[in-house]
Q: What sequence folds into this?
């Protein structure tokens, strides 16, 4: 695995740069049950889309970084089967890549599409978010991290894909929080666990 | 069918080896081993096994609550029948900030013990215990690693294993204390989540406790990356947290966590960690909200310095600080003006002298209150509350310089205002009163940038207080500054020591013009640093215009009046031009000092060097005194050189939000401010504002670890 070591210096200057804005409002907090943060995104196929474009459809956002070990593990079949099931229910499944240039997971639009072909991923869009604008609006912290937005544009789920940071032999079966939330929204029911602790690699935001 | 099954197995095998290959390409980032504090155990006893990690520099593994991302280290033991294992003991974590995210974990090395109990009926002999450890290790990318272990123990006598026992004892020494009598409650206050604390632990108050920080055992309880401002008052503490998703709407459970702080041992500050249980919807004290934190920049702990003195101490400090201000170089001209007034009032009616003294005092105190109000207003507007800020405005510097120049001209007899020599003898004049009041106002204005050492902490305290308390502190500063003069005006016997009036008085007054001019020269120099040569040009034009206007206005004819008005207009124009000059880039005349930036500090520290940072400004007299004194001392400079201390200078002559942020973060109300970062990467030492050779050499040696 190629390791792009970010230097201490970059971290420090980032800290300095964010230090002053860091005080009162650390970051936006998307709120369950309220309007999901709006976005204007450029997709890997070059389209420009906004949240309003998906009005009336359930949207699943999946923050991703194809080299993150947690993402790799879920793309051994689990993520693809979730995507297939969602596609069958007319869910708009969107991957978001918020890795900054030079950071792990940053790819060209072309490569992003290629990766999905290689992995047999089934997604409606891939959002290229190298500036981290959408990531910060949604306060995305880890890859994978999942969000479910209903047809009204209301945020219904935010958190981990399941409750098992590390599926191990002998572990109980994971509770697939994101899938349960998606099914509840599709069935027009309340989401029982609308927020969970996301786990995985940190999102590699731009400095 | 069978073929398909085999293919599936092969695919699974391929995928898992692919993953393994991905993580071992650069070798494991963690050297892990399983250690025991016993080489031989007795039946029925409880001993400890531990997962010991040696971590590649700059990489870290995770605490039980990894924070915003990551994964806690785990150890699975395969124990024989009847053996039982307890919960893992977690040494106190450090804080890692990566962009907008915060993680909790360990770097360099960590030992994670688990208690193991041997059954009472264990047969003597040899036993092998196997185990598996899994962890995530991250720098800016993350690698999951795991390892299997095997350890062989004797069953019989209880015998220590020297190496294992050493590591495990060290881990316990770093682990949170349990059973400390601390009451803790968790409540909502608007959008904030308040952790209120009570217990003997907090008795030392802010003098003895700093860097208070709460690490919750579980994710989702708090927003890990939000700052945690804290207030500590004898026996009580309060931390303002930002809720996580579990506590945003309601607090449905008691939450356990680790309270981390630094305690003063009498000689130095040492970190302490205590396990607490915060009871849902319970408030164990009614402390006011702490001051908001303006910045948090990495490092470990992540707490915030609480103001380190109580209210009355601060008031006393403010009083003493005000007294000391009387002796500061930049107050000297004012002192000389006062001296002049005293000399002139010799023989005046005592009541009148007292009245003038009190009016002067009122002028001082009211000006301090006005400045205090201004600071509070700026703070309310989210501005940077840094003392001495008024001299960062070129127009203020220019105006003050012109005022000094004018006063000098007046003392030389170029023009007369109010009292002349003839009025010595004590005609009561309205001018005396307003003159005394204005003298008070001027005294404050000029004294403010001179940060006397004690004033620093009083101001830091004032700025972190509710408005009324801050204003009280400001008032006390004023009392201290005015007190000597008021005493003299009330105690005419002190006046008896003054010589008799005579011609010498005129000479004396003329002589006092020179300190005024000297002050004007200093202010012109400050302006030259702020705005470069253009500033010097315009301020000299201002001097010219002002003196011309004064000269013209002395004559009552219409023509000269008109000329005078023209001079005044020119003066105003010159001042306006000065005010609108572009700030000059600070000249890099720093000699051995490099220009400061937070990034440069980190860079130098990552090389394992100690770093000394001099926060200074041209308008700060104490800074210049230190620069020419202790910092220029040959012994100090050779101590810097011998210990390879990196020298950085942060120039605050003009406004700089980054520097202001760092000052605020350390609770420093202004410059001079000195930070000495130790070579071993620990927290920086804050040096006093008045440096001596001894202080510097000690600080260098401490930072270098000698």
A:
């Amino acid at each position: 695995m190629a390791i792009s070591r970010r230097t201490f210096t970059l971290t420090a200057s980032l800290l300095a740069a964010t230090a002053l804005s860091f005080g009162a409002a650390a970051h936006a907090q998307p709120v369950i049950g309220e309007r999901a943060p709006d976005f204007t995104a450029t997709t890997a196929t070059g389209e420009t889309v906004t949240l309003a474009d998906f009005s009336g459809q359930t949207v699943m956002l999946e923050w991703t970084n194809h080299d993150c070990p947690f993402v790799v593990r879920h793309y051994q079949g689990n993520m693809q089967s979730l995507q297939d099931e969602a596609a069958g229910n007319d869910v708009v499944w969107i991957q978001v890549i918020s890795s900054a240039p030079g950071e792990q997971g940053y790819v060209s639009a072309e490569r992003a599409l290629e990766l999905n072909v290689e992995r047999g991923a089934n997604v409606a869009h891939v959002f290229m978010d190298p500036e981290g604008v959408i990531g910060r609006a949604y306060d995305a912290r880890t890859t994978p991290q999942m969000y479910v937005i209903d047809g009204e544009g209301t945020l219904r789920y935010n958190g981990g894909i399941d409750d098992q940071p590390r599926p191990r032999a002998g572990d109980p079966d994971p509770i697939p929080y994101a899938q349960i939330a998606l099914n509840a929204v599709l069935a027009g029911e309340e989401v029982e666990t609308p927020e969970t602790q996301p786990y995985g690699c940190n999102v590699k935001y731009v400095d | 069918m069978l073929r398909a099954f085999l293919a599936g197995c092969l695919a699974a095998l391929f995928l898992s080896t692919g993953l393994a290959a991905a993580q071992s390409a650069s070798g494991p980032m963690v050297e892990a081993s399983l250690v025991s504090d016993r080489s031989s155990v007795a039946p029925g006893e409880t001993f400890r096994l531990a997962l010991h990690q040696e971590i590649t520099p700059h990489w870290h593994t995770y605490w039980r609550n990894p924070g915003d991302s990551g994964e806690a280290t785990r150890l699975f033991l395969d124990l024989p029948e009847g053996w039982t294992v307890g919960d893992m003991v977690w040494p106190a974590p450090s804080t890692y900030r990566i962009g907008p995210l915060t993680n909790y974990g360990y770097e360099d090395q960590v030992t994670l013990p688990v208690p193991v109990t041997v059954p009472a009926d264990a047969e003597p002999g040899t036993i092998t215990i196997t185990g598996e450890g899994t962890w995530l290790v991250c720098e800016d990318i993350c690698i999951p690693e795991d390892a299997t272990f095997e350890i062989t123990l004797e069953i019989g006598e209880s015998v220590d294993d020297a190496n294992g026992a050493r590591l495990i004892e060290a881990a316990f020494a770093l682990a949170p204390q349990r059973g400390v009598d601390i009451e803790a409650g968790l409540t909502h206050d608007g959008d904030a989540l308040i952790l209120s604390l009570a217990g003997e632990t907090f008795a030392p108050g802010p003098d003895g406790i700093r860097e208070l920080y709460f690490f919750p055992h579980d994710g989702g309880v708090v927003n890990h990356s939000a700052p945690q401002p804290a207030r500590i008052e004898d026996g009580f503490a309060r931390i303002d947290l930002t809720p996580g998703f579990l506590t945003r709407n309601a607090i449905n459970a008691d939450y356990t966590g680790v309270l981390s702080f630094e305690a003063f041992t009498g000689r130095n500050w040492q970190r302490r960690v205590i396990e607490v249980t915060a009871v849902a919807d319970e408030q164990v004290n009614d402390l006011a909200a702490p001051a908001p934190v303006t910045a948090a920049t990495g490092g470990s702990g992540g707490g915030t310095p609480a103001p380190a003195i109580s209210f009355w101490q601060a008031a006393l400090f403010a009083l003493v600080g005000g007294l000391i201000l009387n002796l500061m170089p930049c107050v000297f001209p004012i002192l000389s003006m006062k001296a002049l007034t005293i000399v002139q009032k010799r023989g005046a009616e005592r009541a009148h002298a007292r009245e003038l003294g009190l009016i002067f005092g009122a002028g001082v105190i009211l000006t301090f209150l006005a400045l205090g109000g201004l600071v509070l207003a700026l703070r309310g507007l989210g501005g940077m509350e840094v003392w001495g800020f008024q001299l960062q405005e070129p127009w203020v510097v220019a105006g003050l310089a012109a005022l000094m120049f004018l006063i000098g001209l007046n003392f030389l007899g170029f023009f007369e205002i109010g009292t002349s020599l003839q009025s010595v003898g004590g005609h009561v004049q309205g001018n005396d009163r307003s003159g005394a009041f204005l003298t008070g106002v001027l005294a404050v204005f000029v004294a403010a940038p001179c940060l006397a050492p004690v004033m620093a902490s009083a101001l830091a305290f004032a700025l972190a207080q509710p408005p009324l308390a801050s204003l009280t502190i400001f008032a006390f500063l004023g009392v201290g500054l005015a007190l000597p003069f008021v005493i003299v005006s009330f105690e005419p016997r002190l006046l008896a020591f003054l010589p008799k009036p005579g011609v010498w008085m005129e000479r004396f007054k003329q002589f006092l013009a020179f300190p005024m001019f000297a002050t004007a020269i200093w202010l012109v120099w400050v302006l030259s640093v702020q705005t470069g040569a253009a500033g010097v040009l315009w301020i000299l034009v201002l001097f010219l215009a002002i003196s011309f206007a004064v000269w013209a206005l002395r004559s009552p004819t219409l023509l000269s009046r008109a000329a005078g008005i023209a001079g005044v207009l020119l003066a105003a124009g010159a001042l306006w031009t000065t005010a609108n000059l572009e700030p000059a880039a600070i000249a890099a005349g720093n000699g051995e000092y490099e220009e400061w930036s937070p990034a440069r500090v980190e860079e130098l520290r990552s090389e394992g060097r100690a770093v000394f940072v001099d926060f200074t400004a041209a308008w700060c007299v104490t800074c210049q005194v230190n620069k020419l004194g202790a910092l220029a001392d040959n012994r100090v400079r050779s101590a810097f050189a011998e210990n390879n201390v990196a020298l950085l200078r942060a120039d605050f002559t003009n406004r700089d939000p980054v520097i202001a942020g760092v000052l605020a973060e350390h609770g420093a109300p202004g410059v001079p401010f000195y930070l000495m970062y130790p070579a071993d990467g620990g927290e920086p030492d804050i040096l006093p504002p008045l440096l001596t050779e001894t202080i510097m050499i000690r600080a260098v040696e401490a930072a270098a670890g000698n």
User: Anything to note?
Assistant: The longest strand of chain A covers residues 92-97.
